[in-house]
Each structure stands twice: as C-alpha cells, then as structure tokens.
C-alpha cells in the first residue's frame, strides 16, 4: 500500500485530536497509534516493514483517517 507521507505527517502533527477520538473506548493508546505513524514516516511509508500488530493498528485507526480527507484538496 502506498501511504501519502505528507498527509500522514499532517495527521500526526495537526490532527491528533482525530486520532484520540478514533481510539476512544478501544483500549488503545494515542501514543501507540502515533508511534506506528511515526515508524511509517521514518521508513518512507513502507507498510511491509510493519509487524502484524502494527499493521492491524494502521488499518484500524490511521488508514481510515488518511482516507477521510483528500490527499490534495480540490482534486
């Protein structure tokens, strides 16, 4: 899967409230989800490097948030 690194960076730095809202009541910690996102940023968005637990976290929380906003507004 190709991850838009600019969008991911924006999510982790400016939309952390959305991450906290998405994990509310799930038992997950925001720092865990943010850590997975940071790992992806550090590794050029290569989801193949994620462990199975990290991939599950990405798919459950980060992926839906990344898909909820267009990568480039107006396109």
> What series of H and E elements makes up the topology?
HHHH
Radius of gyration: 12 Å
Category from helices, strands and their pairing: mainly alpha
The shape, in one word, is globular
Low-pLDDT regions: none
Biggest beta-sheet profile: none
Global mean pLDDT? 92
Quote the distance from N terminus to C terminus. Answer: 20 Å
Strands, total number: 0
Number of continuous helical runs = 4
User: How large is the share of residues in beta strands?
Assistant: under 5%
**Which bin fits the share of residues in helices?**
55-70%
Topology:
Layout: H1 5-14, H2 16-23, H3 30-42, H4 52-67
Written description of the protein model:
- It contains 4 helices and no strands.
- By secondary structure, it is mostly helical.
- The mean pLDDT is 92.
Keywords:
single chain, 75 residues, 0% strand, globular
Summarize the structure.
63% of the residues lie in helices and 0% in strands. The chain has 75 residues and is an all-alpha fold. It is globular, with a radius of gyration of 12 Å.
């Amino acid at each position: 899967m190709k991850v838009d690194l600019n969008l991911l960076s924006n999510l982790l730095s400016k939309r952390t409230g959305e991450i906290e809202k998405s994990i509310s009541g799930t038992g997950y910690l925001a720092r865990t989800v943010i850590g997975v996102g940071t790992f992806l940023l550090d590794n050029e968005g290569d989801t193949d490097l994620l462990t199975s637990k990290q991939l599950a976290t990405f798919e459950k929380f980060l992926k839906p948030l990344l898909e909820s906003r267009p990568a480039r507004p107006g396109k």
